[in-house]
Amino acid sequence: MHIIIVGGGRIGQHLAVDLSNEKHDVVVIENDKDIADKLAQEINATILYGDGKDMELLEEAGLEKADVLVVTTDSDESNLLISMLAKDVSKARIIVRSSNTEFSSVLEKIGVDRVISPEITTSEQLNALITQPDIWELALLHGKVDLYEFIVTSESPVVGKTSDQVEMPRGALIIVVREEGEFHIPTSDTVFDEGDKVIIITTPELKEKCAKLF
Questions:
Q1: Which sign, positive or negative, has the C-alpha torsion 202, 208, 212, 214?
Q2: pTM above the 0.90 mark?
Q3: Structural domains of the chain, ranges and CATH numbers in brackets
Q4: Dihedral in degrees, nearest 10, Cα atoms 181, 7, 98, 70
């Protein structure tokens, strides 16, 4: 997929690393020259220095052909304007981080596909939203859901078991496993080890049941 990330802060940087490691075509737009230069040296992605509200820069990033646009700047005003510009010229799915409920409402009204809270969203969760949208949308049909991260402990009942041996609560789904620094979608023979990070999509009511497994 061709993925554009506007904002090279902590979340944007981690997300770019994860997605580029998964062989996606990633472009990061960052308006801080020092951060942009640092990212260019450390990440296997295209790094563009400039303002994400600049339409020419968005076009240079490949907005018209983009599959996903992730907007993660610290400014809700900028995030809104970038989203509006993108909706005019691109069919990309747009995911925006915003902690302001008023801006979140406006973003949803203009057709942003997903508005997420920076307080509860990690780069791993954003990765899941980007790479597994069908699972996410299907889960939304069954009520209020969220993404939860658990770390497998030495005493966890899932240690040494494969994915198909773990009895998840009905309505809960493991969508991403991070093992030895690498993210992957679990298969039936994925084995859980101590220290693995597991991302689960489920309802708040089932969170505690899932926590007991890890």
A1: positive
A2: no
A3: 2-123 (3.40.50.720), 133-211 (3.30.70.1450)
A4: -70
**Tens digit of each residue's pLDDT (9 = 90 or more) over 185-198:** 677 778 899 988 88
The DSSP symbol for 16 reads: H
Contact 5, 70 (CB under 8 A): yes
Cα separation values, 49 from 37, 46, 72, 203, Å: 8, 10, 15, 39
Task: Give the whole-angstrom CA distance, residue 32 versus residue 51.
Answer: 9
Sheet holding 197-202, edge to edge: 146-151, 197-202, 173-179, 182-184
The pLDDT tens digits of the residues spanning 68-97 come to 999 988 888 888 889 888 988 888 889 888
Dig out the tokens for 31 from the structure: 């308006």
Helices then strands, each counted (H, E), the chain: 8, 10
Distance (Å) of CA 182 to CA 3, 176, 179, 186: 19, 10, 5, 12
Are 89 and 57 in contact by the 8 Å Cβ rule? The answer is no
